[in-house]
Amino acid sequence: MRKSFQVSAAISTLLVSALAGTLAVQAQQAPGVTPPTTTGGGTPKIEIAEPKHDFGKIWVGDKLEHTFSIRNAGDGELRILAVKPKCGCTTPAGYPNAIAPGAAADFLFRLNADRYKGDYSTTIDIETNDPANKTVKLTLSAHVQHYLEANPSFVLFDKLRPDASTQTTVVLTNKTDKELKLSTKALFPSSRVFTWEMKETTPGKVYELLVSAKPPYPGKRNHQTLEIDLGVQGLPPVRIACTAVVPERIDVEPRMLYIPPDSQPRTRSIIFANNGEKDVNLLEAVSADPNITVNVATLKPGRDYRVNLVSVSYTHLTLPTSSE
Fold first, then answer.
1. Which phi and psi (to 5°) does residue 290 adopt?
2. pLDDT tens for residues 214-252?
3. Which string of b and e fits 174-196 if b means at least 16 CB within 10 Å?
4. According to the 3-state scheme, what is the secondary structure of 258-299?
5. Rounded distance, CA 295 to CA 307, Å?
6. Which one of 13, 81, 95, 243 has the fewest beta carbons within 10 angstroms of its own beta carbon?
């Protein structure tokens, strides 16, 4: 039987910080649109004839813009309270703060889909004072084509031992009718963890990029980005992000947690992982903050544990006292 080491983990006082989890964009005045100055009575009613727009097949780098028309079919002022894109790929480019009864206004959005491949769709929430339809959803979609398609689109070497070397292959396919002249370079010349080699397997159409990682590894997470120039004017380069993760002997993730105050208790977790050959038993985890309770869940005895931290509601916070 292998000897088990016993570890008692102490969780230090955690920072409590309120974080907003949703991107909210304040209303911007659209060119040529003057919001009404009177609120009056009545009930607003939002109408969107075409809440979905499909750009169809597009190439990476194409400029994507679309204007949605939103109409107020009610007899009261329609106020735009918030515009919330689902992701940072969508940018509002102009819209009014309010729409008068019977009027319509343009809502312009720009979409950057360069990070995606194939069918892609994203949404935008429009929050208004329409009592019957407080939130409406707009949808932008596209089929994104890459001039040089990479499979996989990134390289990840996960949980490497400090003395391990490894290699993987990225298949590059020419999706154009042009003759490409590929060349590669590293964006971070100082990194020596990664090496690579390009091979042409089908003339003018298919290539193999052999990416290797080898020690010494200067840190837990080692990064490099390879940029592939296509050799054709007007075609953007392709970037392949490479990451090699070399976990510590005893690995704790994350090292810091932000627990937002809320009216309900919140739970956050820390993963304790043993990457060595001998078992390590996590016996206890404690917090110096009286507002945080801690419990330990065993995922795999001697190897992996989850430390759960539960905050009390903000109405029951115990604040420290100071003496003068």
1. -65, -15
2. 999 998 999 999 999 999 998 999 999 999 999 888 888
3. beeeeebebeeebeeeeeebbeb
4. ECCCCCCCEEEEEEEEECCCCCEEEEEEEECCCCEEEEEEEE
5. 6
6. 13
